[in-house]
Amino acid sequence: MSSPKSPFLSVCEGSQPSQTPVWFMRQAGRSLPEYRALRGSGSILDAIATPEIAAEVTLQPVRRYGVDAAILFSDIVVPVHAIGFGIDVIPGRGPVAETPFTSRADLTRLRPLAPEEDIPHVIETVRRVRDELDENATTLIGFAGAPFTVASYLVEGGPSRTFTKVKALMHGDPDLWHELCDVLADLSIAFISAQVNAGAQALQLFDSWAGALSPPEYERFALPSTTRVMSELGALGVPRILFGVGTGELLSLMATSGADVVGVDWRVPLDVATTRIGNFPVQGNLDPALCFAPTDVLEEATRDVLRRGGHAPGHIFNLGHGVLPETDPDSLKRVVDLVHEEGQILAKAARS
Ligand code: CP3
């Protein structure tokens, strides 16, 4: 007899889940006191490189919230860091490159990833987490950054609001831009493949900053490499999620990438997103800021997301972006319980 599927995997495969699955981007992180206690003050990249810590941090939100998925405690810059590009993650700021990518010569600083040698700790962390999880209940999600979003850190040298250097490069030297994206696509493919081969059961490609691009820019400068990542990872046979922020105008293009599930930020209601995406399960999209609202407001907003998500062929509940650092864990716990208690009822009522 085949074992029952987790609610998360059921939705990805288009079948009826026993409950609406829910997890949160950035669930393993600073909003949890048990994370802060374990994490200490070193670089997050050191914490990620220590499997005991990384596995424990991955599991903390599963224990506290009862979420249906764990996301590996890692970061989108882990592969470029591991091959020695020279990047660190500064608390409160994000990834910062010592010497940004400015010219063709910088391509030589981006060699291929050899997972067994470069990131053995990631492989070990995935194995440890899978050993602890009940596979019929909780799904382990592996992830990487999409080429555009990782490139934005390498080229800008750090977080950016305007993406001026990236846009100057992509429009000014499209050939070099496409070569850079190709190399970054290979890194993401190798990074995610290593996670799935070690036991990750689904994958998410974070194109967090894709919303900085117009649809023609996205189609020309970001979608081709993202599509190649999706297509090559298709061979792994696990569900593929594509997510970005501020992507309302890009959703229909993102749906052509080969992803199985499209993540939606909080700006587009899920029923509207579904008319743009088509026949895909969706993931999202409670505004993370609403976790700071009074409980009755938070509950009604959660129900609204569930009702609208009911219009899609499947719905994985999430926030519209990551958990904000000051979020009260009790608010997230309330959301998880509500999604589990009422998700299927509200989605069904919305469809009929
Ligand atoms: O979701 C999870 O809980 C798993 C862990 C995770 C981290 N980074 C750990 C982390 C995930 C999925 C990421 C992905 C990531 N990293 C993205 C895509 C997701 C998104 O939010 O759009 C991006 C853009 C990055 C780059 C990055 N790393 C940023 C912008 C920051 C925040 C900087 C800050 O301190 O405000 C980081 C650091 C980081 N990565 C933290 C965590 C828990 C927080 C800092 C810390 O604890 O040191």
From TrEMBL:
Presence of keyword Lyase: yes
Domain Uroporphyrinogen decarboxylase (URO-D): from-to ranges: 21-30, 141-157
Protein name as it appears in the record: uroporphyrinogen decarboxylase
Keyword list, A-Z: Decarboxylase, Lyase, Porphyrin biosynthesis
Pathway: Porphyrin-containing compound metabolism; protoporphyrin-IX biosynthesis; coproporphyrinogen-III from 5-aminolevulinate: step 4/4
Pfam families (alphabetical): URO-D
Family: Belongs to the uroporphyrinogen decarboxylase family.
Enzyme class of the recorded protein, top EC level: lyase
Matches recorded under InterPro entries: UROD/MetE-like_sf (IPR038071), Uroporphyrinogen_deCO2ase_HemE (IPR006361), Uroporphyrinogen_deCOase (IPR000257)
Organism: freshwater metagenome
GO terms (BP aspect): protoporphyrinogen IX biosynthetic process
NCBIfam families for this protein: hemE (TIGR01464)
This protein's GO CC annotations: cytosol
MF GO annotations: uroporphyrinogen decarboxylase activity
PROSITE patterns on file: UROD_1, UROD_2
This protein's record includes keyword Lyase: yes
EC number: 4.1.1.37
